[in-house]
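Whether sequence alone determines local backbone shape is best considered at the level of individual chains. We regard such an encoding as a compact summary of how the chain folds. The sequence in question and its structure tokens are set out directly beneath this paragraph.
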Amino acid sequence: MEPNNLCTVERRGRVHLITLTGAGEHRLSPALLSAIRSAVAASAGAGALVLSAEGKFFSNGFDQAWARTAPLHLHSTMDGGFRALVADLLELPMPTVAAVTGHAAAAGCALALAHDSVVMRGSRGFLFMSEVHAGIKIVDFLAELMREKVPDAVNRRDLLLRGDKMSAAEAVRRGIVDKAVDGGVEDVVNAAVAEAEKLAARGWDGEVVAEIRKAVWPKVWDKAKDYGADAPAAARPRL
């Protein structure tokens, strides 16, 4: 499958909606990361961005199956692609909202939290940092992202060192997620788009939004900024 078939892009009013397509786990392979970056790059002129996904998963983290078969010299492309995508989101001149429509695990959880706001499905899905269960070390960049996005030490411990699965209601209670939405995937997407529309309606200067975002999460930006300009993106998806 070509990278630009891994996600769709549409405009809903002032909102640029990216949807990861299919019923799979949306594991973050270099191809999917490149496709999402391409879709983000196509958002010029929008007032806000929403990232969502079809199926049971928002994203089940890095594509470990790809890593097991890919040559060792290519392994850095997955980590670098993720850093580049986070850099793109941090310097994007508009508000961003994650519509967490299903399970968001490991790097998929971190991707959701890399957005300005997180709207999560209340009836299905967990935030889950699975590395402690899987016996996988967390790279410095992911650790820094979680440190800045989950500043409460107890919440961060429960996610990373206990590997707790957090429902939407629990994540809202702990201040990790902004809103839990009842219903199905489309209800979550509609709620995220509505939130994004509210933010777009404020008419903020996008460049100022981006500069404030980088200043608010400086250590993540410092570890990501050198990747955004260098990592190649796939051809733009069709609008």
In short: The beta strands are 7-12, 15-20, 48-53, 57-59, 96-100, 103-105, 117-121, 127-128, 165-166, 179-181. The chain has eleven helices and ten strands. The two ends are 18 Å apart (CA to CA). Confidence is low (pLDDT under 50) at residues 229-239.
